[in-house]
Amino acid sequence: MKIADAKSFGEAIRKRRKELHYTQGYLSACTGLSITFISDLERGKPSIQLEKAIQLVNILGMDLLIEKRGE
């Protein structure tokens, strides 16, 4: 999935969380991140903390890649 903005990033996180049948509360308990942070991230809030977002991506078993366009 191509991520073009905070909204598409949040949608990808939400989709994966639901595939795993995880609630926001469960993720909060496992990661120490607040439910508010997870909710804000999934809704595409543009001012999230990158390190926490990357931590959540890893917990969900996803890879975050940055590549030059056209390659």
Backbone CA Rg: 12 Å
How much beta, percentage-wise?
Answer: under 5%
Helices and strands, in order, run as: HHHH
How many H/I helical runs? 4
Largest sheet: none
Mean pLDDT score: 90
Terminal CA distance reads: 15 Å
Oligomer: single chain
Count the beta strands. 0
What structural category arises from helix and sheet content? Answer: mainly alpha
- Helix fraction bin: 55-70%
Contiguous runs where pLDDT drops below 50 for at least 5 residues: none
- Tell me, briefly, the overall form: globular
Structure in words:
With 71 residues, the protein is mainly alpha-helical. Helices cover 58% and strands 0% of the residues. The chain is built from four helices and no strands.
Question: Which terms summarize this structure?
Answer:
58% helix; single chain; 0% strand; 71 residues; globular
Strand and helix map with partners:
Layout: H1 6-19, H2 24-31, H3 35-43, H4 50-59
Helix pairs in contact: 1-3
Would you kindly provide a brief summary of this structure?
With 71 residues, the chain is mostly helical. The chain has helices at residues 6-19, 24-31, 35-43, 50-59.
